[in-house]
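Any chance you could type out a protein's amino acid sequence plus the matching backbone structure tokens because I've never seen that pairing?

——
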Amino acid sequence: MDARRGGEDFEEHEAMSEPIIKWKTGGYGKSPIERVECIKETAKFVWPVGEGRFEPRQTAKRSEWDNYFESWQEAHRFLCDRASAEVQSKRDALTNAEEKLAGLMKLEPPTP
């Protein structure tokens, strides 16, 4: 175990081996799901190649901004689930707003 890696086992691919392919969501690219090559991976981190940097940098697999997946299908399911949850949240908010409006519409002015 190496303390610099947070005690996690990691897989490092040398220049001669195949890169680790991940599918990233949340980027500012042309597509909501992007293919990314990485040189290292642990249970919680990846080291993507490129991304505007000279050297790969440790990046969390799950974060508020980016999420890395093993397959395009997993990334797609994640985005669909998140969008479905957002739709349900908006429906719930609409229901609450409609109930509030209905209650307000029933109000009568006070009698003197």
User: Anything to note?
Assistant: Residues 28 and 98 are 36 Å apart (CA to CA). The longest helix spans residues 72-105.
